[in-house]
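Intended use. Records like the one below are meant for learning the mapping from a protein sequence to its folded structure. Do not use them to infer anything beyond what is encoded.
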Amino acid sequence: MAVQEARGGTGAGAGRLHEGGCTCGDCPHGAREGHRRAVAAFLRRRDEFAAGQGLPAAVAHSASASRQWVSEELTQRAEAVAERGRAEGEAWLAGLWVRTVCVVWGAVVALLLGEALTAIGAGWTGARSAALLAALVVAGALTAACRLHRARGGMLAPVIGEDNRMSTSRTVAASWVLFVGYAVLLLAARLAAASDHTERDALISGLDLARGAGTVSVLAVVCGIAVLVRRVVTLRVLAQRLQKVPAHRPSAADLLTDDSGRGSFTDIQYVAVSAVALLFTAVRLARRPDQLPDLPWGLGVIVLVSAATYLAGKYAEGGRPVILSVVRAREPGDLDGPIRTGDDIEIRGTGFVPPGAQGADRLCRTVVRIGAVDVHVPLVPVTGGFRNPTDTVLTVPVPADVEPGTVEIQVITAAGVATNRCIVQVTE
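Structure written out for the chain above:
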């Protein structure tokens, strides 16, 4: 209703600006507010079901029927929330390019102010003019890139991975590429303004590999790491050794966390070491603007070790989901017995919930294949989360369509990765 009113208003109301309570999808604030309200409504409903409230009288008498009804209701609501989330993510990305442009030109203004303040007493030099001119060229190029990729986050589009998260390796590599490009433009501007033959020779010799070997080596390594990590991740996903679930939108926290949002040591140390080395190199360029910044080999080796640690972490992360055992789920008071059709079974293992798939819209995609029958794992809510499915245990009913006898059981996660097959005996 709110969406229809916001989009379909007529008369004087049609020309009104979107206000603070807008929940339409035509403006970034409306998409964000609509998603926030949808999430809040879903969480309230989930907690009500967890407390046994809101169940229809027709299913309240049956535990299995009520569980199935609650799961279907939560699945539909979760899909609606996910749709809101995707709309909010697209609106956020569409408006991000303006903020990135403001940050870029804010950095140019900060450089101008810094040069003006440090020029007091020392005077304005040609190196200061060249630094400002190089910054204007870089800022102009970044602004054009932001404009061309405004639908994908502007300047951040190249560092957003296929899983819709900010890539740590690409961000580090892009930072070094921008800095080295700025340094070369600075030297080019100084060379163009130089009138003395001796000064021109000195500037050209400033580009010698012997002076900038450390910086060039680090640049080559971080760019190679960015390409290699993408290849490693792609191959591991295709081999079903790594589960990847796309995010609704990228975030700056992606640079320091894994897909589930937990802090990652390999990512944090890579970003921290690279940032320190980049800052040191920037200071060296400011002190010696007539040559490529010479990064000491000691600091360069530290960056290389950090990059190797990050790459090793990418090889080590993930793993294929595995079924360890399948048993009959026994309620208190039930008699022990074999697995029969209609019984609940408990599947024990690991990796059933991929990183980043803790939301209800992803959990409801978990499927258990029992023989030739695909059974969607029911969502069982508890206050603050879900009791089923979990990363190590799944509980599903054995449908009546399953033929008695030897049956193979397999789990397909939300990332589309299938586990090993486990054989159980189903009796009549």
